[in-house]
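#onboarding

Welcome to the new folks! Below is a worked example of what a typical request in this channel looks like: someone posts a single protein sequence, and someone else replies with the predicted structure as tokens. Don't worry about understanding the tokens yet, we'll cover that in week two.

Example request:
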Amino acid sequence: MKPPVPHRRWALAATTALVLAVSGLAVAVTRPAEAAPVGAGSYTTTPVGPLPTGCGPMSSNPRQFATANAPAGAIPTNDWWSSLLWKRTDCAFSEPLHAHPLSYDTFTDGLGFSANSTPAISGTSTGVGEYHYPYVQDIRVGVAGLGAPVVKVDGWTDWTVSPHWSDGARTMRATIGHGLPFAYFQTSGGDAVISTAGTADVWSNSGATIGFRVNGHDYVGYAPSGASWTVGAGRISSTLAGRGYFSVALLPPTANATERADLATTYGRYAHAHVTGTTVSYAYDQATSGLTTTYAFTTTAREGSATQTVVSLYPHQWKSLAGSTPITPTYPSARGRMKVLTGVNQFRTSMKFQGVLPELPAVGDGSGADLATLNSHLAAARANPMDQRGGDTYWTGKGLGRAARLAEVADLVNDTATRDSALNAIRTTLTDWFTASSGKAAKVFYYDANWGTLIGYPASYGSDQELNDHHFHYGYFIAAAATLAKFDPAWAATSRYGGMVDLLIRDANNYRRDDTRFPYLRDFDIYAGHDWASGHGSFGSGNNQESSSEGMNFANALIQWGQATGDTAVRDAGIFLYTTQAAAIQEYWFDVSDQNFPAAFGHSTVGMVWGDGGAYATWFSAEPEMIQGINLLPVTGGHLYLGNNPAYVRTNYAELVRNNGGQPTVWQDILWQFQALGDGDTALANLRANPGYAVEEGESRAHTFHWIRNLAALGTVDTTVTANHPLSAVFSRNGARTYVASNSTATPITVTFSNGTTLAVAAGRTATTGAYTWSGGSAAGGVPPTTPPPTTPPPTPGTPTRYLLPGGGLGAAGGAATTTVAAANGNHDGTPTNPQVFTATGLNLAYSGGQTAFDLFLDAGSAVGNGVQVRVSYDLTGNGSWERVETSRYFATDPVPGYEHYTQNAGLASATGTLGALSNGTVRVEVWSAIGNNPSTLGIGNQSVLRLPYS
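Example response:
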């Protein structure tokens, strides 16, 4: 790793382009020192600050390392191969290029290959730690006598690149790419040479094909028909029968020699169908909320008639694969197992877009006390809604994000004064930044036609010289513009300032292939499925990205802006970025299935993803709160993907507490808001218990309170139901669903959910059904579903009988289900340890005397010595304090399969406090193993029941 910058991630970039049009609006080609108009806005073509630089005497020329064959238009940056084009530490060659399943490096005499499958793990499972699959060379492929002084780039497509060597007498062109087990070569001036690390174990050498093993990895060289391979000490060579092309493939690890030989034959069918192009296309079906993505390969037959190839898929791809069947062997990689498709020229993935919201709806406080708290927080922020820390693009963006959240929340509860103050701050700030005037050197955007980029000044964290983090910075600007567009559509019109917003979008992630001013999807790695922050990628570990959630803030901003302005091309591009990256984050930042991180790494999350691995670290802090929190902020209605797996939310938060040695002490608001996606009640209790917490720089007390209080009422994200409208979400609590949709247009709409539920949404409003609204609020307006959702309605607040439900609710009986009570592995009598927790909130019940009754269905199977214990806690007013806590004696299960009944007859082990009336109260049940080395099964749904001593 390189030394960190003061506070954010590092990233660099390079590009070129011409400025001709914006969203169909003519833009004059300008002379130096002129401002280029874009509707009512403008940008400058006069440099007002530091510019990007490359390597060598022509450092301002981003094409100095591209050949004349390279595509015209803007040069890509922020890619896995960017150090090949934008050289920084070595003005001749690249840093390692981690393509997966292979990594490559460039040298004067050829291309190095690494298939390293042994992770290097440093640090600890509780402190800063990293895992990497570093470049360890197996072979180097070149031309006999080649001594190129520099390696240039001869071409690129969506996820391939073609490095080029020339020393005047000899040339070599290679094509390598994400997911390709093949590297393809065209040569002249000498024999093809494969140099090996040590003596290769040649297991097959027949005619034009040679199979060999180096460092435990199997490679196959495929020469043209009629050619042969000669084996020497540390060297394999071929004249290629004078035909100047060949390919080298890495085979997946195999169980035996027969399987290896079969794979070599299968791969051989496609060895001379060289991949010469890759293209992604995507389609969003609004009716089904489905996203279909097609990854296509173009091949050129150097010989034979094959047009198909062999590809390997990342986990986020093969888990959503449609219509293809991978073969059995898989490749290890820094991203987990890669599955293989043979004989294909394309594959498709099918994912569900879960929907986003401008903000959580305002539900949940029938008494009005919490509405009063929210209103006081809003009033306190009214005079300074941006509360901006600095004036550069990043910190201005953070301030804009804060103001946008305040505007959305204030509108939901009819606080028009705070809403309008926030909107005015957004309008004034954006209009200023979107206006270039003669001599203006700050709060202005500059377009550099040489590099093909739009840079905001003052820049920060290398967003100028290194083109760092444009998607992070500009995502805040675009999201704030989307909020403003809902309330002031005239400002957002293309003839006014909408064209400038579109320029920011295209700079960071140009969604149009016909716009050559900016590279196509600059910051988004199409095949890897996520953004890269570093423009140059010149690190030994490849490229990197820290804040995946700020990348998602950009994707969500496109959805919100496109929806508010009616630009479906921008909206759909945002949905593609959002849905794909949400899947990638679950795999590579969170590893929710516990399949991708090395087993010895010891963390359930990383703060940074690198080309060759990941790190429980950041560029700016070693504090666990920031390592984990940097992938959670900013918290918006576009970040509900963080709650798609509530159990993982709890796992992630538990790791934070463990690594921190206790509850968070910094960025508490961010972390509690994340916790609320998995356990709203506990998050709300944490918030209420710590009213003096320090506010994160882009947050406000009003938004944090709104988010957590409403998630405590809504429950957790329900991913089983989608809608035919992009601004929608479904939540589930105690077995009941709440349906939410937002309408940013001036026309009423009706939203239909995938289970038949419908919801009418007034113009410019957010509607809900299945929950009650804030007292005095205006966020509702939904009608009851025309087709009831397939769930059992919750009990009324006055129902004392409660069943333990899947997902942690206490409500009406549902379908039969089970959950596992973890083994004790020690004595935890009286102390809840790894408990299963079930909660009911908003209870209004009169105390009738008597005691709590329960009947828990338990089965320890044939395990001996298990004892399960239960604790029931009462928060009489829902304020986060437990007035009555009852811990029963543990129940010793028998070693005979079959359910047993654990009831209140076991007696109390301890009890504190007294019972009384429940007024908006909360009841919590905790079930854990007090003793025993084996787990037990708890029957839930319609089995285990709690009977409260209330009427």
